[in-house]
TrEMBL record:
Involved in transporting aromatic amino acids across the cytoplasmic membrane. GO terms for biological process: amino acid transmembrane transport. This is Aromatic amino acid permease. The chain crosses the membrane at residues 33-54, 75-100, 120-140, 149-167, 187-208, 215-233, 278-300, 312-331, 337-358, 370-395. It comes from Ursidibacter maritimus. GO terms for cellular component: plasma membrane. NCBIfam families: araaP. It is a multi-pass membrane protein.
Length: 405
């Protein structure tokens, strides 16, 4: 396998596997392991399918290095571009602000004091953005190299956690049935965002020079890695903690720290908690790189459309200053916007590629590559996308039960 394909697969996997993975067991607490597996595999299939749809449509792009918004304009005019650009940038800026805040907080914990705690946190936020942002500015080759290095550390930490937890798994914990079958539906939007690699499809297409075979291999391998990691992580946590312990944990401390404390107590090792924190840090960094690269590409595509300068000198401040400003001065306000991330991603990662593929197939009936499933597959995926977008509103109305996330 050529290095670029492997590098692209790892960038896709690195973008997909974020720190949110560690909160998954809390979200699935009342579902049981069996239904969690069904949900994960189903969502993996759905989002890999729509990722490949982007690749199918890219065959018709007028230029190799255009972004998804340019494809949307090509088929749906300026309205398509506006919807694609707004949904992408609001989603990515919100995510990046959250990652910068989290990364700065982690870094500030090992920095010397700069006066009060707030000042030290701001220094941590600035250093985190400056150091990692440099790799994004260098380009996808820089992100590729760093991602490979971080992935090794992430795998080592993850394997260590699994080795400590899996031997303590119990069959009766893994065979528990859902406390409420509707919880499976409520968890869909939260699990759905855990396969969000679509924001970097434009960069991957350019990096692999629009080679369909290479992109297809990169997408499939890049999504199978997180699916495997998610399944193993759920196996470990569901196996160690009984359903009653899970529910009790949610009532006491519905956060990652609560999960870390519980698993540390059960395994009897403080090292486990540190390894979970290490994995969380590495997952956050790789997600930061993927999201920042998505903004870089999206803003560049927008500037190119209006014949404005789109070099790195212009793109760097436009990519990092908005989320950095919110992370420094309004962290709570911007992170609150993450509540809409699932809704925005449902549009960008499901409805948009489906609509583009539908239109492209009408205008280009003899494309060299078509994703399996035909137009029936497009209709089924579209209906599922609408359902996923409606679920949060049904939870808000009390029609569906709320889950932790």
């Amino acid at each position: 396998m050529k290095n670029k394909i492997l590098g692209s697969a790892l960038i896709i996997a690195g973008t997909t596997i974020g720190a949110g993975m560690l909160a998954m067991p809390l979200t699935s607490a009342g579902m049981g392991f069996g239904m969690t597996v069904v949900l994960l595999v189903g969502l993996w299939g759905l989002l890999t399918y729509t990722g490949l749809l982007f690749m199918e449509v890219y065959q018709t792009a007028k230029q190799q290095d255009v972004g998804v918004a340019s494809l949307a304009e090509q088929y749906f005019g300026m309205i398509g571009r506006v919807l694609a650009t707004v949904s992408l940038l609001v989603l990515l800026y919100a995510l990046l602000a959250a990652y910068i805040t989290g990364g700065g907080s982690l870094l500030s914990g090992v920095l010397p004091s700069f006066g009060d705690e707030s000042s030290t946190l701001k220094v941590g936020v600035l250093l985190f953005t400056l150091i990692l942002g440099t790799f994004v500015v260098i380009g996808i080759k820089g992100v590729d190299g760093l991602t490979r290095l971080l992935f090794i550390g992430k795998i080592i930490a993850f394997v260590f956690v699994l080795l400590m937890m899996l031997p303590k798994s119990k069959l009766e914990n893994l065979t528990a049935i859902p406390l409420d079958n509707l919880l499976v539906i409520s968890a869909v939007p939260i699990f759905f965002t855990s396969f969000g690699f679509h924001v970097i499809m434009g960069s991957i297409n350019s990096y692999l020079e629009a080679d369909i075979r290479k992109i297809r291999v990169a997408v499939i391998i890049g999504t199978l890695i997180p699916l495997t990691a998610y399944l193993l992580w759920q196996l470990a946590t569901h196996g160690v903690l009984s359903q009653n312990e899970f529910v009790s944990l949610l009532n006491q401390d519905p956060t990652l720290n609560g999960l870390v404390k519980a698993t540390t107590q059960i395994t009897g090792s403080s090292i486990l908690g540190e390894m979970v924190r290490l994995f969380s840090s590495l997952a956050l960094i790789t997600s930061f790189l993927g999201v920042a690269m998505g903004i870089f590409e999206g803003v560049g595509d927008l500037l190119k459309r209006f014949n404005l300068p789109n070099n790195r000198v212009v793109l760097t401040p436009l990519t990092f200053i908005p989320p950095l400003a919110f992370a420094l001065f309004y962290p709570n306000g911007f992170i609150a916007a993450l509540g809409y991330a699932g809704l925005l991603f449902a549009f960008y990662g499901l409805l948009l590629p489906i609509a583009l593929a539908w239109k492209a197939r009408q205008l280009h009936p003899n494309l060299p590559y078509r994703v399996a499933g035909g137009n029936v597959g497009l209709v089924i995926a579209f209906v599922m996308g609408i359902i996923i977008m409606v679920i949060p509103f049904l939870i808000e109305k009390g029609i569906l039960p709320a889950v932790a996330g």
